[in-house]
Amino acid sequence: MATDNRGIPIPTIKRFPSYLRLLKGYRDEGMEMVSATMLADELGLKPIQVRKDISCTGIEGKPKVGFTVVKLIDAIIHTLGWDNATDAVLIGAGHLGSALARYEGFETYGLKIVAAFDIDQHKWGAKLGEVPVYPLTQLKQYLEENRVNIGVIAVPAVQAQEVAEKLVECGILAIWNFAPKDLKLPMRVVVQRTDLATSFAVLSAKVKRKMVKEDLLEEDDEW
Amino acid sequence: MATDNRGIPIPTIKRFPSYLRLLKGYRDEGMEMVSATMLADELGLKPIQVRKDISCTGIEGKPKVGFTVVKLIDAIIHTLGWDNATDAVLIGAGHLGSALARYEGFETYGLKIVAAFDIDQHKWGAKLGEVPVYPLTQLKQYLEENRVNIGVIAVPAVQAQEVAEKLVECGILAIWNFAPKDLKLPMRVVVQRTDLATSFAVLSAKVKRKMVKEDLLEEDDEW
DNA sequence: TAGATTGTTAATCGATTAACAATC
DNA sequence: TAGATTGTTAATCGATTAACAATC
Q: Which SUPFAM superfamilies does its entry note (chains A, B) (predicted)?
């Protein structure tokens, strides 16, 4: 059905890559079947949650036996849309951009960074791994000549909004934003943020919570 | 109260850094008061949600006027625990590690990377920005001599578990894991993952959803 | 067979949103 | 004052978890 993906909860989507990594390991070890119980145990989740997640892929298991490892792998990849490779341009060839361009994991997700752009002329002509770096002024032309759907932003915060708008003008459909800046863009554009600040905020909160809990325990001890 | 932070929802925590960035901008422009309505509008949130989030900081506003910008800034920083600087060690001085070590935003969060460690002897003695790189074998000694609470993991997936266990052995309280690997660690250790795969999975799912929606619209057109 | 595991339906839990009185 | 905005209480929404029948 076309509506297949419509209703898959975001939390489930977020767990899929973890399942996928684990399943690929099992496949490489020659394992053929796996139970939700085993996956849950390995990832620190509850079996019921794993079953619910798996049911979103449309795969059915066999009671007492579990699920076929390779079927599950294919189904998750398909559900995520990772079976169709997508080209992306990278804006910003600094340290972060450079690390992203060289990251080999992307091909696993069907993401291919085909070109990088930067305002700094010292970077022009260089290659970040396999990815050539062009002047930012050539972005528009490049996107006219090459069908690219995704833009990856790895520029300083102050430039992020401007770059994003340029990408949208050039027909980019989705933006993966690594700059610490909240972008204001038309609703039709898909924006995904990967923000160190947000991630660290959660870490900080968890640490603080733990501290508080330990403090409380100490207080209890005194009574 | 000591239990202050206990119950702040994770989604709220995740929005705090965005509020913070925006508020700092307002402060720098000399703005003294700000309404939840304005913040919501700027970030694409609903005013009520912003008010709920702000109430978690304990700050009270004035009807018709709003909230004091600098009070709000201080309260969010305090709620996140970012007013106490924390030292961290970085494991892995590759491209990603290098980018993290040089990232200037961390000081905003009260995070200070004091040393990096790597197995590759070619990296020893180098500096990533201000951060010196040592042999991984010196990690244990370093942590005995310096009180560090947070470990940042930026090594390849296959080494992540081993490195994490070593950090835990050495008394690290919290781990920020950038390796694409789910770590199995004692409950008492706080683990925060920043996983490109997870983030890209969400992007992929949103794109796919949009595609489906557009397909459905087209189908509708034919009827 | 017996028992582990699946899949479904219902209950619970937590966050978002709505409604509205209080207030500057 | 009038009206915008706050803060609280209740309703809604969505995800997780529990319960349990089906099944290999």
A: NAD(P)-binding Rossmann-fold domains, Winged helix' DNA-binding domain
The parent domain of residue B110 ranges over 86-198
Nucleotide nearest to B39 (CA to C1'): D5
CATH (domain of B17): 1.10.10.10
- The whole-number Å distance from A69's CA to D17's C1' is 25
A101 and A194, same domain (yes or no):
yes
A38-54 tens-digit pLDDT = 999 999 999 999 999 99
Q: Which pLDDT tens digit goes with each residue over A117-151?
A: 999 999 999 999 999 999 999 999 999 999 999 99
CA distance B177 to B181: 8
Binary contact (A190, B207; C-beta < 8 A): yes
A110 plus A187 within the same structural domain: yes
Which amino acid type is present at position B65?
V
Domain tally for chain B? 2
**Residue B206 has which token pair?**
């949103």
Residues B90 and B76 in one domain: no
Interchain pair A212, B4: CB under 8 A: yes
- A185 CB within 8 Å of a chain B CB: no
State the Cα–Cα distance between residues A3 and A128, nearest whole angstrom: 39
In a domain, A207, yes or no: no
Q: Is the CB of B11 under 7 A from strand C?
A: yes
Nearest DNA or RNA nucleotide to A9 (CA to C1'):
D15
**How many whole angstroms separate alpha carbon B52 and alpha carbon B86?**
28
* Mean predicted lDDT score pLDDT of chain A: 93
Q: How far apart are CA A112 and CA A131, in angstroms?
A: 10
Indicate if B154 and B129 belong to the same structural domain.
yes
Contact flag A13-B182 (C-beta cutoff 8 Å): no
Which pLDDT tens digit goes with each residue over A144-170?
999 999 999 999 999 999 999 999 999
A125 is in an annotated binding site: no
Q: Is residue A210 part of a domain?
A: no
Read off the pLDDT of residues B82-91 as tens digits, 9 standing for 90 and up: 999 999 999 9
- Whether B128 and B30 share a structural domain: no
